[in-house]
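Hi everyone,

Forwarding the result from last night's run.
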Amino acid sequence: MSRIDWIVLRRIVGRIALTVLIFFGLIVLVESINGARYNYLQTLGGTQLAFLGLLAASAKWLLKGLPLLVLVGTVIGVIDLEARRELTAIKSSGASIWRVVRAPAVALLLAGLAVTLGGESVVTSINRGIEATLPGDNSTLTPTTGFWLEQVRDGEPYVIEAAHVVGGTQLQEVNLFMPDGQQQGRIVAPLVRLGNGAWELPHATWFRAGKPPQALVDYRIPTSTTAGDLRLKLTSTEDMTFYELAASLGGRVSDPALRAAVTTRFLRLLSLPALLVGALFIAFAFTAGYRRGTGYGRAVVYAILVGFVVFVITEMADRAGSAGSLDPIFAACGPAFVAIVIGLTVLLYKEDGWA
């Protein structure tokens, strides 16, 4: 790495790190307002657990806004280079803007991969473990308010209501409401297992209007739900690590809506490094131009506005992709592509001497 790369890298990465640290502190301050949660964790596991919960929850929020923070930090770093006349000297030596952005782009690409493959999984796992200890949460059973599933048998829908879900494939204290409630009634079972293409009821009772209760033994009701579908219905894609998402995609998920949500979340994490590089390009595009004076206000406002627009587009595309309204590939990779195109377009426009 040349001295030019080292100077630019030190300025840009240093300002990004400072920006991330400041915003992380602000998020921690906001999270600390939830005193009930902090006090409960402190009672449960001491100050260490409470502080870990505070940091993990703050880190989760930080990761969602990481591209925007990278953009703001890069803007500050470029202004610092301009104020020290280092960027002017680098350009005067014959180095192009592509040479200037090379080192920080590679650094952000590697940092994004580290966050995707390691940091995000660690933060998600810690948050999930801590949330499971809070009142009303349990890592093995669903809340006592009940768990509802709409199923299909021979083209006719039926509904399953269960008090608990155990092990991801077993339901306890189950009521099955059949398609024709008046004629077919409902089936009550203490335990229902998800088998291969059917719900298995070892012992159950069938209640129908005008008929005595009928005992059922080893009864099976067809279903298209798979074990992968059931596991995904019990959690949110936001609470799944990168590797769990990959395993879910590799497994059998028959529900199109669930598969769309998992695919969108997985590809969004995978495209994070490209989105960070796009934020870098946008920041350089709007703030790295030559100026006679020291006025950077308009350029900074433009860069932050464009970054905010990209952030909004990212969130909207994520919602649309998770809901199945937009193809997950476009929903997850589109914002990163748009950010890179915007940054490169403006940089090329300036390098050609039109601005």
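The first strand starts at residue 147 and ends at 153.

Cheers,
N.
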